[in-house]
Automatic annotation (TrEMBL):
Lineage, broadest ranks: Bacteria, Pseudomonadati, Pseudomonadota, Alphaproteobacteria, Rhodobacterales
Residues spanning the membrane: none
InterPro entries per record: Nitroreductase, Nitroreductase-like
Pfam families named among the record's database cross-references: Nitroreductase
Keywords, comma-separated and alphabetical: Oxidoreductase
Keyword Oxidoreductase: yes
Name listed for the protein in its UniProt record: Nitroreductase
Any one GO molecular function term: oxidoreductase activity
Chain coiled-coil ranges: none
Gene3D superfamilies named among the record's database cross-references: NADH Oxidase
Amino acid sequence: MELKQAMQERRSIRGFTKEPVPRKLLEEIIALANRAPSSMNTQPWHFHVLSGEVLEKVRKGNTERMLAGIPPQREITDHGAYGGVHRERQIEIAVQLFEAMGIERHDKERRQDWVMRGFRQFDAPVSVVVCFDRSLEDNGTIAHFDLGAVTYGLVLAAWDRGLGAVINGQGIMQSPVVRQHAGIPEDQVILTCVALGWPDESFAANSVKSRRRPVENAARFVGFD
Ligand SMILES: Cc1cc2nc3c(=O)[nH]c(=O)nc-3n(C[C@H](O)[C@H](O)[C@H](O)COP(=O)(O)O)c2cc1C
């Protein structure tokens, strides 16, 4: 697949078949993502690739704690509530997803069900937990940038092989659960995770194409004729 096609057609995938993903394929994808640039070539990332029983335990722990009302516990500063244009874009994609899924605005039960799916990482067969070296915690936010680059690379490489993925904060919202079951070393900080698997073509939300503002709104050009 051409890079241009992958970048244009990729979208977050939130419904997966039960078919397992071969470890060899995951290794190939990670090898590609691993080529990402990083500040001073520090390569601060670590991938913990979870499947099977461990992933089920993470899902269960996440779900139980959220239902019990335990406040989210992340290892990086949470983004909090968005406002202004960011809130507008957040609502836009939520409306698109709910419309595709036929979830009515006032259907509290189905909306809650959708949120809980997120905490189960959309029942994906694989979850890649992305961490960075704790020793860089006092070096500003540049490691977060590096992890963003490597994670987008991972998602694109997965898409190129026909796999679908969604980067998600929900899956690591109860980070102590992930840390415990996945055995994340203390010298690493959990930043995000990527739910990954073979897209379920019949899952309506998978065809949602999120909108982007035009280039003239996202960029300005200085010093051109
Ligand atoms: C840092 C980050 C965290 C995200 N967390 C979630 C999440 O918790 N749940 C979810 O459904 N999608 C999550 N997403 C996916 C975004 O909603 C998605 O990328 C955005 O709406 C644009 O849609 P697209 O990926 O289909 O282009 C996250 C994406 C990023 C980059």
